[in-house]
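Let us practice reading a record.
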Amino acid sequence: MIQLSDHFTYRRLLRFTSPSIIMMVFTSIYGVADGFFVSNYVGKTSFAAVNFIMPLLMILGCVGFMFGTGGGALIAKTMGEGKDEKAREWFSLIVYTSIACGVLLSALGFALLRPFASFMGADGQLLEDCVIYGRVILLALPFYILQFEFQCLFSTAEKPKFGLAVTVVAGSANIVMDALFTAAFCWGLPGAAAATAVSQCIGGMIPLIYFGRKNGSRLQLVKCGFDGRVLGKACVNGSSELMSNISMSLVSILYNVQLMKYAGENGIAAYGVLMYVGMIFQAIYIGYSVGAAPIIGYHYGAGNKEELKGLLKKSMALVAVCAVFMFASGQIFSRPLSHLFVGYDAELFSVTANAFSIFSYVFLFSGFAIFCSSFFTALNDGLTSAAISFLRTLLFQCAAVLLFPLFLGIDGIWLSTVAAEVMAVAVSFLFLACKRRAYQY
């Protein structure tokens, strides 16, 4: 079994991170299942509604990523310092707190759902579909938060393969139920939402049961006292991931407003396809970063500077190779993937295929900024990590999506994401250079 304290070659690094990569990719794929079945078996308006309301649901659910990444880095550093019992207590505190947050955010979501969708411009059937889909998903929000959280914490517990198995079970259940509820039983949008909600309950409950009992990992749920300092540190450290997810959701809202203005419902549906498919591609970068973060945090806590340098160098090389491969894949499969989702509508297919061929340039750059943000989180430098995430996912994207369409029309909307990623990479490399002496990587 590979341990966090090992020396990591390229092969060992890929072996340890590959379950996290596959886990994130599979999570994205089963998220895509909703889009595929809704688009093909329920209709274009319902598909647009899912994409319209999803940013709000993501904002509420991404608390799990904050606790998972920020808490995971803190726990890994603590284990690297040889304080295993303290690590288990902090792990337990973070999990219990996230459950309480899930219940509160679920209630908040129910209150905000209709006013939010209406304020953003949804009306008629589009508005009703937003409310129907959102309310069903919100019932499972506490488990959705836990699912996100444990996807990060499984690597910290040195059990990435078990985390992958849980994700496969939950994802397979979602895909099967999507097919049954929407295609076979014709339950429409509520059926698609129910399939997703049940799969989220599975993905959150299985790890809760596993860590609640004696197990073969380094972590277990135990009795713990409340420690606001630890929670605050975990939240600050994971604020970059929280900021990244909230920012992406806010940017998605802004994109929907711009697309409604420049292209109407077809533009929103096309953007939905980009987000679904783009999620799969980006999941490779996110999965690698999540899998590598505990290793980086452990060796930083243990004071292994040479190993830290090697991990950064190897990670950058792997991201570069992946970037070229993913860009080429995006160019080759832009039309087939667009046809898979919206081939039933010629005009919508044309808009989507053109958008995807432009959008795929994002894959050349985004991996570097994603890894750099995660790298600083692993070093327990939440401020730098948050700065990269804030600039990448909010400031640069908002500025670009507001300005580019003024000169390039709808193509400017697709290009704006590419421009934002280029600027984010430049900022990330600047932070790496400035912080090198402080962390000795």
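A brief commentary: The chain has a mean pLDDT of 88.
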